[in-house]
Amino acid sequence: MSKLLLIDGNSIMNRGYFALPKELTTGDGIHTNAILGFLNIFFRVYEEEKPSHIAVAFDVHAPTFRHKMFEDYKGTRHGMDDELREQFPIIKDVLGLMGITCMEKAGYEADDLIGTMSREGIKEGMEVTILSGDRDLLQLATDTVLVRIPKTKAGKTTVENYHAADVEAEYGVTPLEFIEMKGLMGDTSDNIPGVQGIGPKTASGIIQKYHSIEEALKHIDEIKPDKARKNLDESRDIALFSRDLATIKLDCEMDKKASETEVGENSIYSPEVYEKFKELELKSLLKRFDAVGEADKPKEKLEIKTVDMGLSDIVALIKKEKVSEIGLCPFMVDGALFGGAIAVGGEAGSASAADDMVYITREDSIAAIREMVPSGVTINMLSLKEYVGIFGFKEEDNLYDVGIAAYLAEPLKNSYSYDYLAEAYLGAEFEDEKTLIGKKEITLFSIDDEDVRKVLGYKAFTALKAAPVLREKLEELGETSLYETIEYPSLFVLYEMEKEGIRTERNVLVDYGNELDTKIASLTSKIYELAGEEFNINSPKQLGVILFEKLGLSGGKKTKSGYSTGADVLAKIKDSHEIIPLILEYRQLTKLKSTYVEGLLPCIKADGRIHSTFNQTVTATGRISSTEPNLQNLPTRTALGREIRKAFVPEDGYVFVDADYSQIELRVMAAISEDETLIEAFHEAKDIHAITASQVFGVGLDEVTPDLRRKAKAVNFGIIYGISSFGLGEDLGISRKEASGYIDKYFETYSKVKEYLNGKVDEAKKNGFVKTLYGRIRPIPELKSSNFMQRSFGERVAMNSPIQGTAADIIKLAMIKVYKELKARGLKSRLILQIHDELLIETHNDEVEEVKTLLKDCMQDAATLAVPLYVDVHTGDSLYEAK
Q1: Which of 345, 655, 775, 841 is the most buried (most CB within 10 A)?
Q2: Residue 470 and residue 460: Cα distance in Å, rounded?
Q3: What does the CA dihedral 246, 250, 252, 253 come to, rounded to 10 degrees?
Q4: Contact 40, 100 (CB under 8 A)
């Protein structure tokens, strides 16, 4: 018998979107969490059901017949997130490649199309399975129609199965009676009113006894409890109307018959689908294609041969073959070296002894290779910074970081793993590290493990072979100088900063945590008192009930999971009840406790310092990021938040000297836009925000009030990020029209800024990318999106990236200059932290004045622009005092 699988596309996409991290994106910045979630459950059900016919139904963004019946139908729902909306066209493309029918029709919901197609399938003699996360579809279950509902608990996904008997067993009513229940209890997620005061339990009891609303109304005097009887009697029409709204339509006009939705396995597992999954970087799904016939496989996997050889023999081979480059991957256990893999290339760049050959050595003296190989040999690695200390590498050595080169070529990628680099630049397909090693415990004996040897070999081979390809790529892109003068030197500075770390007083953090605990306990008591009961303040569901039901506050929007209580919602109603500011403060303090006390304490090492990791290949703009822990995101907005900085102190006999650029992005914008008015303002060293306020608002400089300066500052920085009139209005608490007037006046004053920003958008649309002054490329694929919000985001990126990226390049140049100057002078002081536009030096007491001058001069001379760079310098006995 043929089997028809019907899928509720919107429901399963929503489920994937909220179940998987929103950070799941392609290297081009396209979100994929909903797509991956959809496909994971699809393949699971497909393998279990083995359907011969498949159709996926989607809602259309247009009023349905229910909206015509009831204007406020689904009126309480939030609009779809842009990150989710952009994924619907993509999943439809994927389904199209699979040969799967997509159904959507104006005037109907996906439920109606599924309901109609399910009955068509029965008429055509098919078994029917419906996949949805929406229990409204349980009304479609019969003895031959199975409704399957995915459910996740404790991180594990199961699928609940419902035929008609299963619905009755769980709810005490038949599938058709389930509709009657909905008429009585309503549905807050769809804004179906129902009868006030009748919930699921009461509704179930009434329908179990009377089986329909009409029959219950005939016995209205018998209904219990009294409140339900009274409310039902007064809301007869509403109950019947609500039932009609909740009833899935079974006779829609369809564009296809059930028999026309046939699909085969060859179509679902086709090479085209495989390539699409690779394009979307859905690596976890690619292994499913192992079942595809050999003739259909898009690409053969390349195996790397590994042979064991002593280090001295490898060095002899390198000398004998006049090797110009090697690929190196150390074998490390707990930070110690126990050997590694070396890929050897000849003068032409091909393997010297045999094609695709890598040598494995077990000798921990692999570090000596730096001294033993001829000076002309280049060592290529995938992540050079990790091994600078182990090998004693110096900037002047012949080294090449393949990962950084790939980052410059493709700055939007999530990672630059060996398997991706091999595929992208060598046309080879390697098994990824997670698949090969996974959760294996790595010991010094693991070098004998076949899978570990594969990973070492793949990394060394990829580093060797991809290096020349990437050098040529950077030359084509005009980024060779960017690599050589900014990114490559930066990795050595960052290594030294990681090694030095920053001294952190554990007792100060503990005392700070205790202070927070006291304040949190006091806030908790006040919140309970105002709420009239104790509840879990951290539970959005419980908090929503307190605010919008018990306290009756307006502004609450209820979804299937409860009321939304996000910061944006609470900010809009903060003046409606005294409990709201307390909740906002409670959240702020609990975040300080969890992130900056509980989060930092375990990071303090035995030397009493925190050694953060600085990442070079994460942000598309070139900014350095900090992780484990993030020291670039220490709170600054509140007095209590800034207190955390008191825990970071210099070593005894040292003081902190801190310097940061003043308004560097505004200065960069003035320089690259060549706006004479803005350039002149900076040259006069005046208060740029006061000048802007004077010119934009038409008042004398001495008449600029603090409020006008605040507004001008918001406009100045907002322009850099392509702020809209709506966004500026939200920031300043003014109308959209007034904000639009501010922006218009700004562009009248600084006309070349507007020309520049518009020109960058045009440039990005033409070339697909924009560049910084130093040649850093920022691709902008969003400009080609069919989604308006994505295109608008792309335009803002086109405006901002050259400015923010140039500023990031300048701070790196300053960092390199400061580091080298400290070394050249033989000073005891050391550079230990970079926080965006700020550098921090742990300065010996005897060197304070020299370091202050050095730091300011190096930062101000890091770049020559049409406007001067200005640096503020501060000193202190803690990070709190130095800022």
Answers
A1: 841
A2: 15
A3: 180
A4: no
Q: Nearest to residue 600, comparing CAs of 634, 639, 649?
A: 634
- The first and second tokens of residue 42, run together, are 């699809």
pLDDT, tens digit, 9 for 90 and up, residues 537-559: 988 888 988 988 888 887 766 66
Q: Looking at per-residue confidence, does 605 or 235 come out higher?
A: 605
Band of pLDDT at residue 826, cut at 50, 70 and 90: very high
Neighbours of 435 (CB within 10 A): 14
Place of tokens 């070339």: 767
Instruction: Write the CB contacts of 244 (distance below 8 Å, at least 6 apart in sequence).
Output: 69, 183
Please give the helix or strand (H or E) that residue 716 lies within, else none: helix 706-720
Cα angle 708, 711, 712; round to 5: 85
Q: Whose CA is closest to 553, among 588, 583, 585? A: 583
pLDDT band with cut points at 50, 70 and 90 for residue 749: confident
Distances in Å between the Cα of 360 and the Cα atoms of 340, 383, 422 are 6, 19, 20
Please return the burial class of 608, using the count of CB atoms within 10 Å of its CB with bins 0-12, 13-18 and 19+: middle
Query: Could you write out the DSSP letters of every residue in 34-53?
Result: HHHHHHHHHHHHHHHH--SE
Distances (CA, A) of 309 to 60, 288, 362, 850: 64, 37, 8, 52
Residue 155, exposed/middle/buried by CB under 10 A (0-12, 13-18, 19+)? Answer: exposed
Burial class (CB in 10 A: 0-12, 13-18, 19+), 669: buried
Give the pLDDT confidence score for residue 502 in this predicted structure: 96
Strands of the sheet containing 378-381, edge to edge, are 305-308, 357-361, 336-345, 325-333, 378-381, 399-401
Count of C-beta atoms within a 10 Å radius of residue 675: 21
> What is each CA distance from 520 to 106, 514, 546, 586, 590, in whole angstroms?
52, 10, 19, 6, 7
How far apart CA 422 and CA 358 sit, in angstroms, is: 15
Residue 564 and residue 548 in contact, taking contact as beta carbons nearer than 8 Å: no
What is the CB neighbour count within 10 angstroms for residue 532? 10
Category of 504 on φ-ψ map: left (φ > 0), alpha (ψ -120 to 50) or beta: beta
- Residue 261 contacts by C-beta under 8 Å, 6 or more apart in sequence? 4, 53, 54, 55, 100, 101, 117
Q: Could you give the CA distance from residue 56 to residue 101 in angstroms, rounded to a whole number?
A: 6
- Tokens 């219990």 correspond to what residue? 224
Q: How confident is the model at residue 209 (pLDDT cuts 50, 70, 90)?
A: confident
The set of residues, in sequence order, having a beta carbon less than 8 Å from that of 23 and lying 6+ positions away, is 33
The residue type at 730: E
What does the block give as tokens for 291? 């079942």
Q: What residues pair up with 400 in beta bridges, in sequence order?
A: 380
With a CB cutoff of 8 Å and minimum separation 6, the contacts of 154 are none
